[in-house]
Automatic annotation (TrEMBL), chains A, B:
Gene3D superfamilies found in the cross-reference section: 3.40.50.450
Organism: Mycobacterium deserti
Domain (Smf/DprA SLOG) ranges: 75-293
One matching Pfam family: WHD_DprA
Domain of life of the native organism: Bacteria
Gene (UniProt): dprA
Name by which UniProt lists this protein: DNA-processing protein DprA
Family membership noted in the UniProt record: Belongs to the DprA/Smf family.
PANTHER family per the UniProt record, alphabetical: PROTEIN SMF
Amino acid sequence: MNDDEARAWAYLSRVAEPPCPHLAALVGCVGPVEAAARVRGGAVPQSLRSHVEARRHIDCAEQDLAILKRLGGRLVTAGDEEWPALAFAAFAGVTGRPQSHEPLVLWAVGPARLDDVAARAAAVVGTRAATAYGEHVAADFAAGLVGRDAAVVSGGAFGIDGAAHRSALATEGLTVAALAGGVDVPYPSGHATLLRRIADEGLVVSEYPPGVRPARYRFLTRNRLVAALSGATVVVEAGARSGAANTAAWARALGRAVCAVPGPITSSASVGCHALLKDHAHVVTRASEVIELIGRVGELAPEESRPVSPLDGLEDSEKRVYEALPARGGRTADQLAVASGLPPTQVLGPLAVLEVLGLVVCRDGRWKLALR
Amino acid sequence: MNDDEARAWAYLSRVAEPPCPHLAALVGCVGPVEAAARVRGGAVPQSLRSHVEARRHIDCAEQDLAILKRLGGRLVTAGDEEWPALAFAAFAGVTGRPQSHEPLVLWAVGPARLDDVAARAAAVVGTRAATAYGEHVAADFAAGLVGRDAAVVSGGAFGIDGAAHRSALATEGLTVAALAGGVDVPYPSGHATLLRRIADEGLVVSEYPPGVRPARYRFLTRNRLVAALSGATVVVEAGARSGAANTAAWARALGRAVCAVPGPITSSASVGCHALLKDHAHVVTRASEVIELIGRVGELAPEESRPVSPLDGLEDSEKRVYEALPARGGRTADQLAVASGLPPTQVLGPLAVLEVLGLVVCRDGRWKLALR
C-alpha cells in the first residue's frame, strides 16, 4: 500500500458509516484512489450518494494516518496478506441481515496478524454487569483457550470482556479487542491501560478511523466483527437484553458455533445464556469443548473423571448379592438367596467373585461385608 | 378384587424380584389365583423357575395385606380402574433396557388415584447432596407445577426429592413418592414424617411388598416407575453419577420429556444436569416450561417481561440520529448529519419523530437530548 492508497483508504474509511456495500462496490470497480477522488468530487452513483453526502467534504486522512503511525498501527484491507479473507467470506452467505458485509478497512494496532487470529480464535463475550461467577468463568475459559493455543477475541468492555482479556494476557496468550470506536479512543476509559496492553501484546482492531466515538449502533457493527473473527462465540453471562446475544446471532448467521455457559437460573446475569441454550446454543462448561468446536481437535482435553465405586464393573447378579448383605453380621448363602431373590445355585458364583475382589468375607459358612 | 385374588397378588408381588416378565406372562395366561398356586407348587415353566425358586415357599400375603390395611392402603393391578394403563403402555415400545416392563402390582397408600396422577404429573428429581441453590430451585419448580394443577412425583429421598415433595405439600398440591422398598418402610427414616404426610394427602406407591428394604438395584427399578408416571422428568441437580440421570434415561426411553435445570458450572452438584443438557435435554428455568412439555398448555405462563428502552421500536435512522446527540449541549441538524453519517435531508424526519416521542428537544435550531 503506497502513501496515496493509504490516504485514500483512510478517507474512505471515514466518509461512510461502515459497513457500506455501495462504497465497497465502487472501490472494487475503480480502486481506492480513484474511488476516493470520485466520492470527494460528488461523482458517485445515486445509490451511494446518500451514504457519503454528509461527510464527503471531510478529509483528515493525513492526520488519521499520523495518529495510527504514532500508535504503531497499520491499515489492513483486502489487498493485504494478513486480511482474514477466509473468515470474512462467510458474510456472502448471510441473508436477511442488513449489515452483512465484510469491513472495507481495518485499523489495527498490535503485533498479531489478523489472518492468524481468525484461524484460531474464539470470542468470549458477555454482559458488562457481570457477577463474580461470570468473571471467574470468563477468566477460566480464556486461560483454558490460550493454554490450548487459541486466541481470545472480545469487545474490551467492562465485565466479561475485560475478565477474558485480562486472563488471556495473564496466561501470556493472544487476545484481540475489537472496538466500536477509533483505536485511539480507549473505551471504556477505565480500560485504557488494559487496551494498551492488548495493543502491545495482541491486537486492537476497529473499522472506525481515529477519533470516532462508540455509539449504540457501532457496538452492534463491532459485534459482527467479533463474531466474524472467531470460530466460536462463547457467551459467559448475558442479561435479558445484552449485546452478547447480538454477537451470538452474528456467529450463528456466519455459520460459527454459538456457545453459552449455564449459570444459576436465579441469576439475571445468566438469563440471556439460558435463552441461547433454549435456542440450541452449545452448552459449554470447559474450554476444551470450545476448542473442539473451533476445530483444533489435536489437543483434546482428557475425559472428565468420574468417582469410582467398588461396584463398578460388577455383573447384575453380583450387585444383587452384594446389596443383599446386611450392614452388620453375616448371612448364609441360602439366606442371601432369599434376600436377593436369586436361586440358591446362582448365589455362590457371585459370592466367589465378591470374595476375590475383597468385598465380602466368609466365616464359618456365613458371608459378611469386608471391613473397609 | 376379592380376598383370594388379593392374597394371590400379594404373594406374587413378593415371590419374584420385580419386574419379572415371565411371572407377568403366567399371570396374564391363567390369572393371579391360579398363577400363585402353580408358583407355590413349583409347576412353572423353566424360564420362570429360577426367578421364583428362592422365595416360592414364602407366603406372608395375609400379614402383608394386614399391614397395608392398617396403613389405609390398597393393591392396584392392571384390572383396576385407576391403573395408569396409558402411561405404562410406553414400556412396550422400549428396546434395549432389560427392566422395561410395567409393574405387576403396586402397593399404594393415599387418597390420590394413580391414573389421575399419571395424567398430569412431572417428576422433580435430583441428588441427595443438594446445594441450597438446588433445594431452592426444586421447591420453586414444585410450587409452580402444583400451582398449575400438575402433580409432583419424586423418590422421597433427602435433598432435591424432599425439597420438591415439601414444597408441593406446602402449596397444597398433589405429590407422589415412589419408594424403593415397602410402603411401611419409611426410607430414609429421617423422612418418616414427610412420607406420612405424602400418604395422607397424596400418594406413596411401591412395587415392593411390606417390609422390603431398599437396595441399590431397587432404586434403579423405582426410578423407572418415577419416569413412567410422569409426562416429563426435571433433573434439578445431579452429580457426575446420580440416580437422577438414570430416571432421566428412563424418561427418554419411554418417550417422555427430559428436562435439566442449569446451574453454576463451578458446582459439582450441577455436573449431571449439564451432561444431560449436552445430551439434548430441555433447558428449563421455569415451571411453566415443564407444564408446556407435559401438554397442559391451557395455562401458559405469561411471556417473560423484558426491560424497556426508550429506543425500542425506533427505526434505524432514528436510533442513529439519537445516538449522534451528545450527552450535554446541542447540535444543529447539519452537525447531526455529519455525526450520524446520514445525509442532511434524512436527519430532519428522524428528529421530528424523536421530538414527538419526547426524546429530544429543539432550542434555537439546536437539538439536544430531553432531560429525563
